[in-house]
Every structure is written in structure tokens, then in C-alpha cells.
Design goal:
With 100 residues, the protein is α+β, with helices and mostly antiparallel strands. It has 3 helices and 3 strands. The protein binds iron/sulfur cluster.
């Protein structure tokens, strides 16, 4: 790449005209609420004590920082379970209070 071309690329980047979807860079955080529901016998679910219905008052997936609202109110995505759906009223040991 010659100096002129490199300069043009840097100018383009500086102008912010290049858009790279974050989901393509970090597939883990891509929305996955349309994926299959997390199975309760999934080894990760077992390890984290995941349940489709929380028994811990005030702590549900839809109140967790790691939850992304899905296409329905009942199910959404969680970075802990990429490619799968978790119940909005579910819970696991990784629950973190939503701050936003
Ligand atoms: Fe639900 Fe646990 Fe994911 Fe939080 S980390 S959204 S509590 S499964």
C-alpha cells in the first residue's frame, strides 16, 4: 500500500464512514434470542443453576445486565448462552443487576 492510499484509508476511517457491525466482530454478543431454548440439562445451565423460572426474588433474566430482550417478551438472549434463548423470568448464578 503506497503512502497516498494509506492516507486515504486513514482519512476515511477518521471520518467514521466505515461501519463494521459489532455483531460480526463479536459473534458471542450477537442477538441470539431466536435460538433454541436453553435445555435445563445443558452442562453450562447445570453448572450455573439455570432455571426457566427464578426462585430468587427480584432476580430474573430480564433484570440481568447480560440479558437482551428478544422478539417476544418471554424469551431473550444471554451472552452466557450464545445461540440460545433464555426465559425472561429465568435465573442463573451469573445474575448481575441491570444498570441501564
Ligand atoms: Fe439469565 Fe444468568 Fe443470563 Fe443473567 S446471566 S440473563 S441470569 S441466564
Amino acid at each position: 500500500m503506497n503512502k497516498s492510499t494509506r492516507r486515504e484509508v486513514l482519512k476515511t476511517l477518521a471520518k467514521g464512514t466505515v461501519f463494521i457491525p459489532l455483531g460480526s466482530l463479536f459473534p458471542m454478543i450477537a442477538r441470539s434470542e431466536d435460538g433454541p431454548k436453553v435445555e435445563l440439562d445443558d452442562p453450562q445451565a447445570v453448572a450455573l443453576g439455570y432455571a426457566h423460572e427464578s426462585i430468587t426474588e427480584g432476580e430474573t433474566c430480564d433484570g440481568c445486565q447480560l440479558y437482551t430482550v428478544g422478539d417476544t417478551e418471554e424469551w431473550g438472549a444471554c451472552v452466557i448462552f450464545p445461540g440460545k434463548s433464555v426465559a425472561a423470568k429465568g435465573w442463573c448464578k451469573s445474575w448481575i443487576k441491570k444498570t441501564t
